[in-house]
DNA sequence: AACATAATATGATTTTTGTCATGTGTGTTA
DNA sequence: TAACACACATGACAAAAATCATATTATGTT
């Protein structure tokens, strides 16, 4: 709805990693892709950008794959989104004007500002593992 | 941010029409496009889909153009958005799953549901002319 | 050294965005 | 009324971006 497919895959894949890695196991891209119903090669490319930005990790070779380092700091959803969509994702104008400011607001700015800020704060507050533990009474739904 | 360029242009153009039409004047596409900084031919095509869906009106020939019928019912933002993005825009899953339901929710559903509903209601409540009158203390900003 | 897998590069495909040419209806004018 | 100009309507086309697929390379494991 508001994210690109790339971001959707990035979040779903990272959720899968957080959910299934208890130690420091690796998951190869085919495992991940079939677990979240995504095109494997495309997903791999997206995960690589997450690796480069130190959101997740990877190792090559046999028994290699992608993983999340449980010992490093938790993965904040906001950082994950920004990593794929770009740093100004939450600061864009709803109507596509070049800047979203109080000084030169578009007609919808006043009404939309609050919701935008709330969404931003929601994603800044929650980590992927937060989401996983909040939902672990039912089963986690990551497939189409 | 959450809309396609098409929808952004649709909203900006309709705002321009509401703002500038006191009687039933027409505005030709070049006037509209330069007023909202949009590609004229592309914008024209978008406005034509709005005409087909009875959101705005148009007349051909000299002194023709696009206009909003002041006597017909106000243009609700929700209807405008749906007309371009499609009828299920506000019912999509944030993570791209096929359905957004309480029965099979994605991990973010619980946290996102409230905000999605609020946004939906915001757009359902406000008409384009509402927005125009709310903002008419400053000058209306529709250009990039 | 052989193998498995991520990383990288590259290309194909699809969707979105934008442009062009032509058709069609409408009003003006002679 | 006939010619003409005007501006939307329509569909073909092009460029750009996003998405998806394949091949090659590099690297770590055994
Ligand atoms: S200026 Fe448009 S949302 Fe802030
Ligand atoms: S199921 Fe994903 S937002 Fe409702």
Report the principal-axis shape of chain A: elongated
Class computed from helices, strands and strand pairing of chain A: mainly alpha
Rg measurement of chain A, Å? 17 Å
Proper CATH architecture of one domain in chain A: Orthogonal Bundle
Provide the list of bound ligands, each named once.
Answer: FE2/S2 (inorganic) cluster
Quaternary organisation of the protein chains? homodimer
Percent in strands of chain A? under 5%
Number of helices of chain A: 6
**For this structure, what is the CATH class of one domain in chain A?**
Mainly Alpha
Neighbour order of strands in the largest sheet of chain A: 1-2
Overall average residue pLDDT of chain A: 94
Main beta sheet strand tally, sense and closure of chain A: 2 strands, antiparallel
Helix amount of chain A: 40-55%
Which chain pair has the greatest contact? A-B, 41 and 42 residues
CATH superfamily of one domain in chain A: Winged helix-like DNA-binding domain superfamily/Winged helix DNA-binding domain
Distance between the termini of chain A: 15 Å
| β-strand number of chain A | 2
What is the H-and-E element order of chain A? Answer: HHHEEHHH
Low-confidence residue ranges of chain A: none
| CATH topology (level 3) name of one domain in chain A | Arc Repressor Mutant, subunit A
């Amino acid at each position: 709805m508001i994210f690109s497919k790339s971001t959707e895959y990035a979040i779903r894949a990272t959720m899968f990693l957080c959910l299934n890695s208890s130690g420091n196991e690796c998951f190869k891209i085919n495992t991940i892709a079939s677990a979240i119903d995504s095109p494997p090669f495309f997903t791999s490319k997206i995960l690589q950008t997450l690796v480069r930005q130190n959101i997740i990790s990877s190792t090559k070779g046999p028994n290699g794959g992608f993983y999340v380092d449980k010992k490093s700091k938790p993965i904040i959803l906001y950082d994950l989104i920004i990593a794929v969509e770009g740093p100004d994702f939450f600061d864009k104008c709803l109507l596509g004007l070049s800047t979203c400011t109080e000084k030169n607001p578009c007609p919808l700015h006043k009404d939309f500002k609050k919701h935008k800020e709330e969404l931003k704060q929601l994603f800044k507050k929650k980590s992927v593992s937060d989401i996983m533990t909040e939902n672990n009474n039912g089963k986690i739904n990551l497939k189409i």
